[in-house]
Amino acid sequence: MNFNLSEEQIMIRNAARDFAQTELLPGVIERDEKQQFPAEQIKKMGELGFLGMMVDPKYGGSGLDTVSYVLAMEEISKIDASASVVMSVNNSLVCWGLEHYGTEEQKQKYLVPLAKGEIIGAFCLSEPEAGSDATSQKTTAIDKGDYYLINGTKNWITNGNNATVYLVIAQTDPEKMHKGINALIVEKGMEGFVVGPKENKLGIRGSDTHSLMFTDVKVPKENRIGEDGFGFKFAMKTLAGGRIGIASQALGIASGAYELALKYSKERKAFGKEISKHQAIAFKLADMAVQIEAARHLCIKAAWEKDQKQNYDLSGAMAKLYAADMAMQVTIEAVQIHGGYGFVKEYHVERLMRDAKITQIYEGTSEIQKIVISRSILND
Ligand code: CAA
Fold first, then answer.
1. How does DSSP classify residue 145?
2. Radius of gyration in angstroms for the set of CA atoms belonging to the chain, rounded to a whole number
3. Residue whose C-alpha is closest to residue 170's, from 237, 100, 234, 105
4. What CA–CA distance (Å, rounded) separates 161 from 359?
């Protein structure tokens, strides 16, 4: 057992930390307020290889391991969770899915520009009536011979407007239930595909969340991922890795808030001394540090299992459940330590607290993670 990071992993973590400080921190409060997508920053992240981190270099990626991805996600999320969700979706849900299950033609056409960050992708599973109950797809993809005809609506889609490539999950044969679902690659601009208005959200307000409407959209058969009926398994397998990304995002949000609270506690004085010297605050910081370290270990363990080609469904779900709930608690405490200052925007912690909430909801709510975990431990 070796807890040391490799030189390369440390270098990636430092590069992500520098990028977050120099490129993401300036303007992060304004982007949150104005709900502005960090387009320029995402472009730079693509150029630095952060959008296709684990993709084989022969497909334009950085060829790194999942542990490096976790480290980079933590650093980016400390500063700007609206940028890190773009990074997470593009890496874990879109690039990973295409690299592992796409055809060579699909990889050349879509994966290469996605991994280089020249374009970004979206993963379209959720619907108005299919969130946690993901098998209950109402969007249809009817087999018309050499193409599928897609009709329906997808909700809360990250990168909804800024994406160029959309992996859309839809029902082809309802009689086969989840075994009749397909995953199709849809391009922006295909006739009948309309992006709805941007959602006005509590947190990650810079991220670009939209509903998508499909009316008789013709998608060529060669855009189906995997065999006929593989769509639901594709979504589940892809989300299993996505959960490691969101767990790391939650970890980063929490550690960002903790670092701010620690610094503030050493500067702010009350009753004649720094507030860090009051046990009430020092114990809060101790609890936060332990929780963050535990989440970090869960995230890295899940990433390591993925890198070792072991099954990571359980460890990924555990990491996401723990890190998301922990991020909510830690960010609330960070606001509390800041007192009145924590409640205003300039101190960042109120934004981090709002951003933490979504990590308990997307890519499987905390309750869904408990389903995955309990089924896994009970079946063992
Ligand atoms: N790997 C491979 N296959 C899997 C799997 C996995 N991790 N998990 C489930 N499956 C397979 C099952 O084996 C089963 O297939 P068979 O019938 O062939 O055995 C099939 O999928 C159906 O599984 P279940 O019977 O377990 O299905 P269920 O209805 O009980 O639901 C669930 C399972 C885990 C609750 C699932 O519906 C789920 O994960 N729901 C949450 C959906 C979700 O995470 N949505 C996030 C939206 S994307 C997003 O948020 C992205 C973003 O923008 C940030």
1. S
2. 21
3. 234
4. 21
Pocket of ligand 1 (CB under 6 A): 85, 89, 123, 125-126, 132, 134-135, 158, 178, 232-233, 236-237, 239-240, 313, 362-364, 368, 371-372
Is position 363 annotated as part of the catalytic site? yes
Ligand 1 centroid to 243 CA: how many Å? 12
pLDDT in tens, 338-364: 999 999 999 999 999 999 999 999 999
> Per residue in 111-121, pLDDT tens?
999 999 999 99
Beta-carbon contacts of 234 under 8 Å, excluding residues fewer than 6 positions away, are: 97, 101, 169, 183, 225, 226
Q: For ligand 1, pick from 92, 236, 244 the residue to mutate: most ligand atoms within 8 Å of CB.
A: 236
In Å, how far from its chain's centre is CA 362?
8
- 224 contacts: CB under 8 Å, gap ≥ 6: 148, 182, 183, 184, 185
Pocket test for ligand 1, best of 233, 238, 243, 361 (most atoms within 8 A of CB): 233
Rounded Cα distance between 25 and 38, Å, is 11
Taking a C-beta distance cutoff of 8 angstroms, is the pair 45, 83 a contact?
yes
Q: Whole-model pTM? A: 0.98
For residue 85, give the ligand 1 atom closest to its CA.
54
Q: Which residues are CB-neighbours of 194 under 8 A, at least 6 positions away?
A: 212, 213, 214, 215
